[in-house]
Write a structure and sequence with these properties.
- The complex is a heterotrimer of chains A (523), B (253) and C (220).
- Chain A is an alpha/beta fold.
- Chain A is built from 23 helices and twelve strands.
- Chain B is an alpha/beta fold and 253 residues long.
- Chain B contains 13 helices and eight strands.
- In chain B, strands 2-1-3-4 form a four-stranded parallel β-sheet, with helices on both faces. In chain B, strands 6-5-7-8 form a four-stranded parallel β-sheet.
- In chain B, strand 7, helix 12 and strand 8 form a beta-alpha-beta unit.
- Classes of the chains: A alpha/beta (523), B alpha/beta (253), C alpha/beta (220).
- Strand 9 of chain A pairs antiparallel with strand 9 of chain C, so a sheet runs across the interface.
Chain lengths: 523, 253, 220
């Protein structure tokens, strides 16, 4: 692996702060175990809650100096970015597809109450049981009850963003139930006592050597050990995961999944995956519990023809993912004979209430925005202090959680507004517009509470810029500054401007502004 | 032979605040270029700034003065031309939103009108004057950074490349990651200094690797950022706005 | 006062959030500019299907006549070094005759086999419902000639027989053909090549949990 380290170090980069810990170590926390009174069944994740993460700039400053992480992230994002671009360009009607995708999700969102009731009715008619959860606690309570009713102490699960959002694994662990991740990357994260850093490839921050170490160290503690002579070949690592998980699949009575799409007019749930771990979970156990955000619906079966073209091309950069499973309630004699669906709000109705911000609910969790983002590429998902990282995380997490905590107030500012995300989004979420909208909401909130330097400076600048002639007169001061310093460039500035000169010089304005030149030449 | 402009209208120049104070040479070059092509250029003094710094940082109310001054300065002009993909984008994409938020219906209507007449320089050259060869001579190696706003918001497409391809003597060297953001991002560079600096240094590094003499772009804000890194590193690579290249005649810079 | 249910609270919150939506009919309120079920123009559907399935490193074989199918299946099984084979109850019995002569153990999933039993089976033979050329995808609707979902999942080799007339152009056309089965509450599985992962450094590895070998046999 040397191809991904080229040109990593830019020119004159002396800004990077200290070199964080291991690539995957979460922020501000080691791999310490959560204090508990019972013997844990599953590997302990990093201590602490995501919502208590440091604000983005502080987290980013720590992570950006980690060279292993940088190399892993750069290689991964650039690879998948190119794959996406190639397969998206293959379809002549890609732009029409994106437009249709956006419109389907808008129709759904604008009439969500109608489609939720339709979905519920169809699920019940097809033998499924439907549960409604307003928040994470309610969802976890429902799930724990359903699992305990089966008299089992373990479940297998399919990678699902929503179960991470509600921190289901830890809730189950606290109830004495082991939740085994079966997606390869989630397995790497779980066995690595780590947190996911990407919604598509949760272990995107890990390289093959790290994966080998984790498998050798941890698999034996939780089931079938990794072969002692395991090397770092991805095929051999995948084979070790296959062997480790097969006994868990065959043993499991209960599986837990999310859903990529829930078709309202038929009551059909859809899971899109690659490895077959999804099919295992959806087919082998007796009981299936699917947890889904209320925004994951689509109105009709026909809408799938749009979504199933957009999602694989945008996420893994494939024409089609290896496996897509659809099931409609209970199929007699085939697969789980007890099927539950948990419909989760957990802040979604709050997002829906903001007409400017609600387009974030169109998201189909493809991760294309992350892979296209130059900020995400440099710091990875852990910097975002949220289950949803990258550009979509910067607009979705603060809205879902409410903009109360320091990390959520920092996320909408974690973007240069370069627009690369909006260009690749398969459902055309105007991410830069929503970022700006949320910045406005945050600023308005701050204004109500205190004055602050930034607000003062913005107020003064706004006053200065409001009149052209006023601006012209003040502009002359810049020329004066140039005469006083006598320098073409400044190397060091005080206050917040220090953040500029830490890494670069500041060109000084020339003695004469354009306005003065014009007055002399044309005035 | 340079292309003959289809029309030679009266043009109001939108200098933009950063160019007015920090990069007057860019606006002067724009004026000279447009005059050379036969246009009559005016500079309405009531103009100030596109207000993007305020809007993008969340200070909508503070940015409203810029919207009003833009309307006051440019209302009634058929062609308003600015040498910045970023500032013209801010006018086109954000002024209507700010005006609508202000609840001032008269302002909103005035904004809608003035926005329709606002052009980025290369749009005006290629779409209105319908010229590509503007008679420029620039016998240097250059590399080109597509700024985010020129590329993804103003959607200038091939226009800058078409103009550059007709400049006599100009040798264009492709910049690796040419469509990647330079990390400036307005107040992003002070709010997220570590990521911003890393992006800028990465961009500067690729630019130096081309071996070009000039780094050309359509936004001086980006060049201020990349140029600051180049200056600190003691690089001889010089940032330059495309308008200055297009304004160059036989005498060179 | 009776306690409100989770459902009532969530629906009330959703309705309150949508107070700006004044048109009740979703279709009138939110138009979708899309012609459903329209195939894009493709000249050589069959050739494209073969190319795209092979792209996923699946093996594609074509039978010129129905009589060739049993031998081709036997060849695939031999190549995959299969010893036991599961077949769905509705599979064409003639298809396995050659394999039986070769001495392979053929298990009919009727009565349904236990999952531990299936875990030891080396191959499965199924028919298919629809093929998609554009994406190289096969869809199963798990009717009698394709069987329960589990039988095409646990064995390491899947031999899938698809008729030419089942192969359509692309996802929209396939979705239109499959809609009836979905409305009949049939489970559906779309298969595009063998199982795969790119979870380690984005480097693609064929074969994780699902069948690691996929043979697609095109029947007349």
């Amino acid at each position: 692996m040397s191809d991904n380290r080229d040109k990593e170090q830019g020119l004159g980069n002396e800004s990077s702060a200290g070199a964080g810990g291991g690539a995957g170590a979460g922020l501000g926390v080691g791999t310490g175990t959560v204090a508990s009174t019972h013997q844990r069944r599953t590997p302990a994740p990093p201590a602490g809650r995501l919502i208590d993460s440091p604000p983005f700039p502080a987290a980013a400053a720590r992570l950006i100096g980690n060279q292993t992480l940088r190399a892993n992230m750069r290689h991964a994002t650039h690879t998948i970015r190119a794959k996406r671009a190639k397969v998206a360009a293959e379809l002549p009607n890609w732009e029409q597809l994106r437009q249709a995708g956006a419109q389907i999700k808008d129709r759904l969102g604008r009439h969500l109450d109608y489609y939720l009731e339709q979905l519920e009715a169809n699920l019940i008619a097809n033998g499924a049981q439907v549960h409604w959860a307003a928040d994470a606690d309610e969802a976890n309570r429902i799930i724990i009850e359903l699992v305990k009713a089966q008299d089992v102490d373990e479940v297998v699960k399919i990678k699902s963003m929503v179960t991470q959002e509600i921190e289901m694994n830890e809730a189950l662990e606290a109830a004495g139930i082991a939740a085994w991740e079966t997606d390869l990357a989630e397995l790497i994260v779980q066995l690595g006592h780590d947190r996911p850093s990407n919604i598509l490839v949760p272990a995107i921050h890990r390289n093959r050597d790290e994966v080998r170490e984790i498998f050798l160290r941890e698999m034996k503690l939780y089931g079938k050990p990794a072969p002692e002579d395991l090397d770092n070949e991805p095929a051999h690592l995948a084979a070790a995961a296959r062997a480790h998980l097969r006994e868990k699949f065959l043993r499991a009575k209960v599986a837990i999944s999310g859903a990529n799409f829930c078709v309202a007019d038929t009551g059909t749930l859809v899971i899109v995956e690659s490895e077959g771990n999804g099919r295992m979970c959806l087919t082998l156990p007796d009981v299936l519990i699917s947890v889904t955000g209320i925004e994951k619906l689509v109105p009709t079966v026909e809408d799938l023809e749009v979504m199933l073209q957009l999602l694989p091309r945008s996420s893994t950069g494939e024409r089609m993912n290896p496996y897509t499973s659809m099931w409609t309630g209970v199929t007699p004699g085939d697969g789980p004979q007890e099927v539950h669906v948990v419909l989760l709000d957990n802040g979604r109705s709050r997002v829906l209430a903001d007409p400017e911000g609600r387009a974030a609910l169109r998201c189909i969790r493809c991760a294309a925005c992350m892979h296209s983002c130059p900020v995400y590429e440099r710091v990875g998902g852990h910097a975002y202090g949220s289950v949803y990282p990258g550009p979509i995380g910067a607009i979705l997490s603060p809205q879902l959680r409410g903009i109360n905590d320091a990390v959520d107030k920092s996320l909408p500012f974690a973007s240069t507004l370069c627009g690369a995300c909006a260009e690749v989004c398969p459902v055309k979420i105007p991410i830069p517009d929503i970022l700006v909208h949320l910045r406005h909401r945050i600023v308005e909130e701050v204004k109500r509470k205190h004055l602050g330097l930034e607000r003062f400076l913005m107020g003064v600048a706004g006053w200065a810029m409001a009149r052209g002639r006023r601006f012209g007169r003040l502009g002359k001061l810049a020329g004066v500054a140039r005469r006083l310093t006598g320098r073409e460039y400044l190397r060091r500035l005080p206050g917040p401007a220090h953040n500029w000169t830490r890494a670069r010089d500041l060109r000084m304005p020339p003695k004469q502004s354009f306005r003065s030149w014009w007055k002399k030449e044309h005035g | 032979m340079p292309d003959k402009p289809k029309i030679t209208p009266k043009v109001a120049i939108f200098a933009t605040c950063i160019n007015d104070v920090m990069f007057p040479e860019t606006v002067i070059a724009t004026v000279q270029l447009l005059e050379r092509l036969g246009c009559t250029v005016e500079f309405p003094v009531e103009q100030s700034c596109c207000g993007q710094m305020f809007t993008n940082t969340g200070y909508f109310r503070e940015g409203l003065g810029c919207v009003r001054s833009y309307v006051e300065a440019f209302s009634g002009y058929e062609y308003i031309v600015g040498p910045s993909g970023s500032c013209v984008t801010a006018v086109r994409d954000q002024h209507p939103m700010l005006a609508a938020q202000s609840g001032d219906a008269g302002l909103a209507a005035a904004v809608d009108d003035v926005v329709r007449h606002s052009y980025e320089l290369t749009e005006f050259l290629c779409d209105v004057l319908e010229v590509e060869d503007v008679g420029a001579v620039f016998a240097h190696k250059v590399t080109y950074h597509l700024t985010c706003h020129s590329l993804r918001f103003a959607r200038l497409g091939e226009r800058p490349l078409r103009l550059m391809s007709k400049v006599r003597g100009l040798e264009l060297i492709e910049l690796e990651g040419f469509d990647q953001c330079c990390g400036f991002g307005g107040t992003f560079c002070v709010k997220n200094p570590d990521v911003s600096a890393d992006m800028a240094s990465c961009k500067a590094g690729y630019a130096v690797d081309t071996g070009a003499e000039y780094l050309v772009s359509l936004d001086n804000a980006c060049l201020l950022n990349i140029g600051g890194v180049l200056h600190r590193a003691g690089s001889s690579l010089k940032p330059i706005h495309l308008a200055e290249i297009l304004a160059c005649g036989e005498g060179g810079l | 006062m009776a306690e409100t249910t989770g459902k009532e609270r969530i629906l009330a919150a959703v309705r309150a959030a949508l107070s700006d939506v004044t048109v009740d009919d979703p279709v009138l309120d939110s138009p979708i500019d899309w012609q459903y079920g329209q195939a894009t123009a493709v000249e050589q559907v069959l050739a494209l299907f073969i190319e795209r399935v092979e792209d996923y490193k699946a093996v594609v074989l074509s039978a010129a006549t129905a009589a060739e199918i049993p031998q081709l299946i036997a060849d695939c099984l031999q190549q995959a070094q299969a010893t036991t084979v599961v077949v769905p109850p509705g599979l064409e019995p003639a298809w396995t005759t050659t394999a039986e002569l070769d001495g392979l153990r053929i298990l009919r999933d009727d009565p349904p086999l236990d999952k531990l039993e299936l875990d030891g089976v080396s191959a499965v033979i199924t028919a298919a419902a629809v093929g998609m050329a554009e994406t190289g995808t096969i869809a199963l609707d798990h009717r009698a000639d394709q069987g329960r979902r589990i039988i095409s999942l646990l064995p390491d080799t899947h031999i899938c027989i698809i008729r030419r007339d089942q192969i359509c152009t692309d996802v929209p056309q396939a979705t239109a053909r499959l809609a009836a089965a979905i409305r009949d509450k049939q489970p559906i599985t779309w298969i595009s090549g063998p199982s795969a992962t790119s979870d380690i450094e984005l480097s693609r590895v064929e074969g994780v949990h699902g069948p690691r070998n996929l043979y697609v046999l095109i029947a007349p």
